[in-house]
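Hello forum,

I keep getting stuck at the same step: I have a sequence, I want structure tokens, and every attempt I make locally crashes halfway through. Rather than fight my setup again tonight, could one of you with a working pipeline run this one for me? It's a single chain of 182 residues.
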Amino acid sequence: MIFGLFRKKNNNQAIVTRQYEHLTQAARRPLFYSDMGVPDTVLGRFEMLTIVLILYFRRTATSERSGQEIAQEIIDYFFEDIDHSIRELGVGDTGVPKRVKKFARMYYGRLESYAAALDIPDVEELKAALRRNIRPDEPDAPDMAALANYMIEAEAALKDVSEDQIATGAAFLIEPQPVERT
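Reply #2:
Ran it on my machine without issues. Output:
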């Protein structure tokens, strides 16, 4: 038991777990897959979780220190989750780090391209980035306007999330709305 004295204690674990669950639930909302052009596949779900995390991290970038610490722990948790998922898919121990690095490059590439479009905000630029990332090899891919608009609206709504909600793991994203068919 002496080794427990040297182990880093994570006082935020319950908060991080709660917030990560909220974020993964947000990424699994059926309308993203039925109405907004995201394929309901392993990679499609990765794309949606990436989008949700990016929106959350953009909000916490302006948070107090505790919010930024929680955000860092959530990104660590995310990559641990990816590691675990890759192992569950049957990838051997030697192949896992290479695949996790690939997913990390994918995540940070998306962060960069989505942030550039969200900073403006530019729906057309965001639609193009979403299409490149979510449906790269599909010439007849669905239009990503609904998802791009959702991202812009969700980011605006996240600005109203209080520091207390961030610090307690109680930040929620807005619900997507059904797309009107014309």
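Residues 65-88 form the longest helix (24 residues). If your local run keeps crashing, start a new thread with the error log.
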